[in-house]
Amino acid sequence: MASFEPNKRHLRELLIYFFNLKKSAAEAHRLLVEAYGEALSERSYEWFQKFKNGEFDVEDKERSGRPKVYAELEALLNEDSCQTQKELALTLGATQQAISHQ
Known about the structure:
By secondary structure, this protein is mainly alpha-helical. It has helices at residues 8-20, 25-36, 44-52, 66-79, 85-92, 96-100.
């Protein structure tokens, strides 16, 4: 039998459900981990804070800049995959840490 793989929206909607049941963020996280496993990366505490502030939109907000850097990084790596993170960071005008997270 195949297991259900939850997406971000599903998990966030479950967090709203637990929030409405007056569960704590820690309890909600524990229940999600119990149901879906340790690999769960949702940030229950951050979402509960948003809910407390009246923000119930579960979609990711668009971010500026990041996709462009990622696309440029991908293009540079396609040209020469032997470049170091430091070289890539200098070329893109980004930090080495930002490159390593891509």
